[in-house]
Design goal:
The chain is of the alpha/beta class. The chain has helices at residues 7-10, 21-27, 29-32, 42-49, 90-97, 148-193, 197-200, 202-222, 224-281, 288-302, 313-335, 379-389; strands at 11-13, 35-38, 60-63, 82-84, 105-107, 118-121, 126-128, 131-133, 283-286, 365-368. Strand 2 (35-38), helix 4 (42-49) and strand 3 (60-63) form a beta-alpha-beta unit.
Length: 390
């Protein structure tokens, strides 16, 4: 695009004439946006852009290259206050700007607008005879070899916008704080409006309560029966509170006993199932721990006699059965319910609904399970197995 420049890129305001920039920008505003196309490539350029859909309007002109520079312009006119960039289009641009329709006479104020020809004031007002205009359609300066001035202007504008935004943010915070305070005040007003004056007059309420208590004490002291009834009511209230506390404790105790009873019923079911299995099998399979415990129980039942005495085996076995029955009956007696707590039945009921009746279990033949091959059972257990086999 360097060979297709805009006029604004090829001219600049001379540093010593910078105070006339507004007037020059006003006069050359439309010409500055003119794109220059080499005259010999104008047709190709038109054909190339014809299919484009541009958002804005592009103005261009064919320009001859390397034209000779015209005579030095008058410093009182626009062309005399400009610098021209050294390029193939320089002669064409100088000639274009020097045309009377653009090369306005620069006057200090509106007093200099009277007279013939195109004239412009320092403020940018233009006049050509009786026809004139004032104001600027484009705020930004576009004429210049470099856009540094434009960038500086944009930066300055951005700084101003940033300051404005900062001020708006501070103002927004103030408004939000004020809004919260108003909301709190409105809530307080609504609360006050929903109550009567008596609800808010604490001092008067306290005085009325004190007066009623005084009158109550006078009435009670004037009538002994009322005083006695008052004391009786207080005692009954204390008893009621104690009864409630005791009832709560009994409820907790009942819940604990119910849980314990449920566990006992489950244990009873397991024991009953095991007894039925033993009855069907006709023998008991013991592990090492149970066999050792049974040996200890048999020795204790046979004491002070020798548990290995086979002649007294049946007598010692009866003692063992009595000892074991007593050991089983003792926990049941301790966990039995006081009279009146549950209805009596012919026997304990398990969780499966079966009624248990006490019946002497046949003496099973104990068989050790898990004993090592080298260990030998006690003589009384060998005799028990021999008796069962016989």
């Amino acid at each position: 695009m360097t060979d297709l420049p805009f006029v604004a890129e090829l001219v600049d305001v001379a540093p010593e004439e910078s105070r006339w920039r507004l007037a020059i920008e006003t006069v050359l505003g439309s010409s500055a946006r003119l794109m220059l196309v080499p005259a010999d490539r104008l047709e190709d350029f038109s054909a190339a852009i014809d299919s484009l859909r541009l958002r804005g309007r592009l103005t261009f002109s064919g320009a001859e290259l390397d034209l000779p520079a015209p005579a030095a312009p008058d410093r009182d006119h626009v062309a005399g206050k400009l610098l021209f960039q050294d390029s193939p289009f320089r002669g064409w641009v100088q000639k274009h700007v020097a045309e009377p329709a653009r090369n306005a006479l620069c006057v200090e104020s509106a007093d200099g607008l009277a007279g013939g020809g195109f004239r412009v004031t320092l403020a940018g007002q233009t006049r050509s005879g009786r026809r004139g205009s004032h104001g600027r359609g484009e705020r930004r300066n576009i004429i210049g070899f470099s856009n540094a001035d434009s960038l500086a202007e944009i930066d300055e504008e951005l700084d101003g916008i940033e300051e404005s935004l900062t001020g708006l943010d501070e103002r927004l915070q103030e408004v939000e704080i004020a809004t919260r305070l108003l909301d709190q005040r409105r809530a307080a007003y609504d609360a006050v409006r929903s109550h009567g004056f008596d609800d808010l007059d604490v001092a008067s309420c306290d005085a009325r309560i004190a007066d009623l208590e005084r009158r109550r004490d006078e009435i009670l002291s004037a009538d002994d029966r009322l005083n006695t009834l008052e004391q009786h009511i207080g005692a009954l209230e204390a008893q009621l509170e104690e009864a409630r506390r005791h009832r709560y404790q009994l409820g907790e105790e009942k819940a604990r006993l119910d849980a314990e009873h449920g566990e006992l019923v489950e244990d009873e079911d397991q024991v009953t199932d095991e007894l039925e299995r033993i009855e069907r099998a006709g023998r008991v399979v013991l592990d090492d721990e149970q066999a050792s415990r049974l040996d200890e129980e048999f020795a204790a039942a046979a004491a002070p006699d020798d548990p290995a005495d086979l002649a007294r085996f049946h007598e010692n076995a009866g003692r063992l059965q009595a000892r074991l029955n007593a050991a089983v009956s003792a926990p049941r007696s301790r966990s039995s319910t006081p009279t009146g707590s549950w209805p009596a039945s012919s026997g304990p009921t398990s969780s499966s609904g079966r009624t248990r009746t006490s019946a002497p279990a046949p003496t099973p033949t104990p068989t050790s399970r898990g004993s090592s091959p080298t260990s030998r059972p006690p003589a009384w257990r060998s005799a028990a197995r021999s008796g069962a086999a016989g």
